[in-house]
Amino acid sequence: MTGEQKTWTGKAIVARDSLANKGWKMEEVTTKEIKEDELLVELVASGICHTDIMCGSGSGNPDLFYYPRVLGHEGSGYVKAVGSKVQIAKPGDAVLLSFDWCGRCESCKGGLPSLCYESMPLNFGNKVSFTSAGAEHAGDVAGKFFGQSSFARYSVAKQNSVVNVTSLVTSKEELQTFAPLGCGFQTGAGTVINVAKATPKDSIVVLGLGGVGLSAIMAAKLSGCRTIIGIDRVDSRMETAKSLGATHAIDTSKLPDGKTVIEAVQELCEGAGPAVTIDTTGVPVLVKAAIEMTRKGGKIIQVGSTPPDFQVELPAFLFMNSGKAYMGAIEGNSISSDFIPKMISWYREGKFPFDRLVKLMPAEDFERGIHEMHTGETVKPIITWS
Ligand code: CXF
Ligand code: ZN
């Protein structure tokens, strides 16, 4: 490890119980010493993603829901110290946090680190990164969610979850705005570009117009898709989708009497349906509709987290005859160190204006950010640490 200082103390959002039980608290924690393949990052900002809320909201499955822990997996900051085997960054470098991958498994070796057998999807975290000094709660606190746990002023990050953007950012303020690139924006854009490989010949439907869905809309526009349909039930998001390139927006709360969302979509797509349908909602009724509305030979890509026990039932014979493919994708099949620089260059060219989706607020206001994300007032809350 380079540098003298071995541990850092600062604020973190510690989930001691589920969010619904008001179990997320701002506390002072001290980082554990970094290992040879880890970095100590001073966060300047963290994006809030639904996966943080999902993993910090439940109980029952101890692999998924355990406390106390620091969540957060979208983040940006500056490196304070690096372990002896870290090659990707040095103290002072600007970095974005994304997801961890092992580099040894068949997925990683095959260029699909987001499908890492060791680190993803739900085997992240559960490793101690912090100690809390608070008299009320002294003791160890888990970190390394997605390899890093970004909801802290100082955090320990596995080297593979870190992307060096020193040469790509111009200021601390810009670095703060870039915080969500490592998950939400990469997931939406990567699903269209890397998974669907959408082209101008394709019509595309995106269900759910949050950070992931609206990034998918921007990427569909970037890919020249001929018909781009956004579906949601929050008015302002419909407008945002259109201003980002959607050719149509469907408000499911305002469908004319008797018309289903499936009919509404198919009417806009030559009666046959879209070639690509991306579900970012995880809402069972919409997942079923997504599969049905898609044209023969089309792809349905599941990106939103459904309730864990929800099962999709398919009539196998008819489904075979439809030639459709229902598939899952995580993080848009992205290799973050390639895809994040690409998103930044599209942003610079005005083709991926993700800054229009974010709202910055002090880390102490995290509950407001979560609330505004749920009501639809804010697409992507970013909490700032300094
Ligand atoms: C997650 C969705 C749940 C599985 C891991 C990846 N994506 C973004 O947060
Ligand atoms: Zn996420």
In brief, what are we looking at here?
By secondary structure, this protein is an alpha/beta fold. It contains eleven helices and 18 strands.
Commentary on this structure:
This protein has 386 residues and is α/β, with parallel strands linked by helices. The chain folds into 2 domains: 8-182 and 353-384, Quinone Oxidoreductase, Chain A, domain 1, CATH 3.90.180; 187-330, NAD(P)-binding Rossmann-like Domain (Rossmann fold, 3-Layer(aba) Sandwich), CATH 3.40.50.720. Helix content is 25%, strand content 25%. Strand 1 (9-15) and strand 2 (24-31) form a beta hairpin. The model has no long low-confidence stretch (mean pLDDT 95). It binds cyclohexylformamide and zinc ion (ZN). Zinc ion (ZN) binds next to loops.
For the structure shown, list the relevant keywords.
386 residues; globular; binds cyclohexylformamide; ADH_Zn_CS; Rossmann fold; zinc ion binding; 2 domains; six-stranded parallel β-sheet; GroES-like_sf; 11 helices; Quinone Oxidoreductase, Chain A, domain 1; NAD(P)-binding protein; alpha/beta; zinc; 25% strand; seven-stranded mixed β-sheet; binds zinc ion
Helix/strand layout:
Elements: E1 9-15, E2 24-31, E3 38-47, H1 50-55, E4 69-70, E5 74-82, E6 94-97, H2 106-109, E7 127-132, E8 139-143, E9 154-158, E10 162-164, H3 172-177, H4 184-195, E11 203-207, H5 211-222, E12 227-232, H6 235-243, E13 248-251, H7 261-268, E14 276-279, H8 284-293, E15 299-302, H9 316-322, E16 325-328, H10 336-348, E17 358-362, H11 366-375, E18 380-384
Parallel strand pairs: 11-12, 11-14, 12-13, 14-15, 15-16, 17-18
Antiparallel strand pairs: 1-2, 1-4, 2-7, 3-5, 3-9, 3-18, 5-6, 6-10, 7-8
Helix pairs in contact: 4-5, 7-8
